[in-house]
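Minutes, project check-in

Agenda point 3 was the complex the collaborators sent over. CS summarized: two entities, 464 residues total, and the question is how they sit relative to each other. Sequences were read into the notes so everyone works from the same version.
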Amino acid sequence: MDKDILVEYFPLYKDALFLTLKIGWQGIILAFVIGLIGSAIIHFKTPVLRKIVGIYIELFRNTPLLVQLFFIYFALPKVGIQITAKTCGVLGLGLLGGAYMIETFRSGLEAVPVIQTESALSLGMSDFQTLWYVILPQAISISVPGILANVIFLLKETSVFSTISLMDLMFTAKDLIGMYAKTIECLFLLVVFYLVMLLPISIIGAIVERRMRYGQFGD
Amino acid sequence: MELLKVTHLHKEFGQNTVLNDINLSVEKGEVVVIIGPSGCGKSTFLRCLNGLEEIQGGVITISGLPVEAGKRDITKLRQKIGMVFQSYELFPHKTVLENIILAPTKVQKRDKEEATKEAIELLDKVGLVDKKDYYPRQLSGGQKQRVAIVRALLMHPEVILFDEVTAALDPEMVHEVLETMIALAKAGSTMLIVTHEMAFAKAIADRIIFIDKGDIVEETRDVKEFFIEPKTERAKKFLKTFAYE
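CS then shared the predicted structure for the full assembly.
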């Protein structure tokens, strides 16, 4: 392995990492918001919306992100909706992640005992206040492992962004290999950068999880 | 003054009739104790009163306003009806103080400082003011239950429902919770209490209601007499289960 090559390519990978993180986090925030709204719709058993959310979840969980991205990037302009590759990446990741986040939040909401809801209602709280102040905080803390698993999963999924010519880590690696054929160095850097991005999240996740389990609320 | 009125209340779960035809009128300041064997419907009855259960027949009114589960203004009515649960149901992610002032500040939009001040006064009365920043899991069962009572009180309810509030507690803790409730009764609160503590029932009740199989079997204001010589055979048999010779 040529050390000079590693040093030379390093800045390119660094830029790609930042792009991946930027699009990744925007997509994850979108996924989080979709997750909250969608799980609230299911939680309240809202008549028609609930069906729509159900269809959305099945649609996005059962098609590959690659296909979703192609659809958003290449099919939408045909009906007159133009979006940039970056927006497409955020949207694709957010919609895919949203489907997973809804399910994660939903199981968290279901894990909070019903009598907690009754307790809040008996204090005169509305359904929304009960969800927002009492049930959701407990549900989220129960969902932390699932949320973190989703975050890591989504950041890894960003590797298909290269197909809509976003210069993410995967794109950079493939591009450099194609041009200079320094395959070993390029792949080595690729693995290192993915680890640099994801390992801290896994480690922080493990710590947060342990705190949630043992030191729950107080101490 | 009549505060709570229940006429021809009928409640069923599917095919199962839980409450048959319950009629009850509670005056302001009255302490009504509801007793009866397990599964007789007494807890369900309390839950109907603040709209946690839908009813299949009859009318419940509080200060003349009908209580109907699922109606929009049910939240307004629930503010008038406090409820304390057997399992405390404090919110685990909030401190004692946060638990207590959450509903007054968010539901009644009261000033946070004013609510806090009153919360601390009430906590002081039940001897828990030094625990105000603790989380529920750091408290004993009896302490949690007293916090739950303070939480219900801070909403200034017109009537408070107590659903077997000492059933999950050690005997010593039972005592501290019951003391708190007796103090409330003396201060003139209107209370409906479901309990299995017969000595406590005798001490606190203005009226005893004995429910069995979804019906009010016996109802009397002569509380002492009821515990010595109940009028119905069913109540006699029930009370015997508490006596050991």
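Noted in discussion: The CA atoms of residues 189 and 195 of chain A lie 10 Å apart.
Follow-up: revisit at the next meeting once the mutant set is ready.
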